[in-house]
Write a structure and sequence with these properties.
- The protein contains 17 helices and 6 strands.
- By secondary structure, the chain is mostly helical.
- Strands 3-4-6-5 form a 4-stranded mixed beta sheet, with helices on both faces. It has a two-stranded antiparallel ribbon with strand order 1-2.
- A hairpin with a 5-residue loop joins β5 and β6.
Length: about 350
């Protein structure tokens, strides 16, 4: 750490830690508002306004078997400590120190061939990483992932993520009942939309912890292409994101939406591109310079102001997007005429020739 101070608490029941290796900035009292993606906040507001969500949330908060969940990981995973996965324990303490999270959440390594990590829990967050992820990533890439999960904990995401996990399993069990899972799937769909946006926020938290943009993006690239780093290139990977956003016609835009709906995470190229854009922004630089919102100010934050900021950010995204559908939305919002002509043009390209080719 820059000041060499220590940080108490942790998954192994106590002790001290400081960031090893190169010097990293610490952010005392940082509010999660500093790194939360505007779409994360607005999606959460929309989720809370969903009909029936409050009722389901209150009911599940008392019914979810959290103690059972904790006992499951305690009995069938390896708890990170000074004695087990010590290097991960150091990363966890470092991440909590940098983001000034007072109580370090327990962290477990679970045997699983799929690279994954999650932060779940209603009363207190639990971080779980899979063996495949630990084997896939190098130290700096893993540091960003640990910071990502600590960011979820600081933002209070674990509660909603736990409910999504439970509802997804429940929907599978009641799928055979006529109309039985319609209401559940409506909430699951809304939760997934928020979940995807929350990943963008946590990616930013991971960057604040690791403070190495290339390592963060490299880790995302490995999640997409595996551990063949000598065969891959971050710049080329980012070019894929640009091609994905700008390529195709309106039909491709609709297909992108359909491909995204069942997913809990944004596509890896999109996450890398979003993170690169933020790492080069004035907002990121201000945080690194020590200018960021503090937790002590959270109680004075206006919900309506946050929503307006989110709406403004969405509008900017639509305006600046290269996606054909988003460009069309921007044109319509800007007063462009001949909607029917634009729709026909977007779907059929140049007109008759393209239409003939489609037949």
């Amino acid at each position: 750490m820059t000041d060499g101070n220590h940080h108490d608490g942790g998954g192994d029941g106590g002790g001290h830690a400081r960031v090893p290796g190169r010097q990293r900035r610490r952010f005392p009292g940082i509010s999660s508002r500093a790194y939360e993606h505007p779409a994360d906040r607005s999606a959460l507001v929309a989720l809370r306004r969903l009909s029936g969500f409050d009722t389901v949330f209150k009911a599940l908060s008392g019914l979810l078997p959290e103690r059972s969940l904790r006992l499951l990981f305690l009995s069938d995973s390896v708890r990170v400590s000074d004695a087990q996965f010590a290097h991960l324990n150091t990363m966890l303490r470092d991440a909590c120190y940098i983001l000034d999270l007072e109580k370090v959440p327990p962290m477990y390594v679970n045997q699983d061939p799929n690279p994954n990590a999650m932060c779940i829990g209603l009363d207190e967050p639990i971080i779980v990483v899979t063996t495949a992820l630990v084997e896939l990533l190098d130290e700096e890439e893993m540091r960003a992932v640990v910071g990502h999960e600590v960011g979820h904990a600081l933002s209070g995401h674990s509660v909603y993520r736990t409910i999504l996990l439970f509802l997804t399993n429940l929907a599978l069990k009641v799928a055979w009942i006529p109309l039985g899972n319609v209401a559940i799937m409506a909430i699951v769909t809304a939760l997934r939309e928020w979940f995807r946006k929350s990943e963008l926020s946590a990616d930013r938290a991971g960057l604040l912890v690791g403070q190495d943009p290339h390592a963060s993006m490299r880790g995302l690239m490995k999640l997409a292409g595996g551990n063949h780093l000598h065969e891959m290139n971050v710049d080329a990977f980012l070019e894929q994101a640009e091609e994905y956003e700008a390529g195709g016609d309106l039909r491709d835009s609709v297909l992108k939406i359909m491909n995204m709906l069942p997913r809990t995470h944004p596509f890896a190229t999109v996450r890398a591109a979003e993170l690169k854009k933020w790492s080069e922004s004035r907002d990121f630089q201000r945080i690194m310079d020590g200018h960021y919102p503090r937790r002590e100010e959270d109680k004075d934050t206006s919900v309506s102001d946050s929503f307006r900021q989110s709406a403004s950010a969405y509008a900017d995204d639509v305006r600046n997007s290269k996606d054909p559908l988003m460009k069309l939305v921007s044109d319509i919002a800007g007063g462009a005429g001949d909607l029917g002509g634009k729709l026909r043009g977007k779907f059929t390209g140049q007109g008759g020739d393209d239409a003939a080719k489609d037949k």
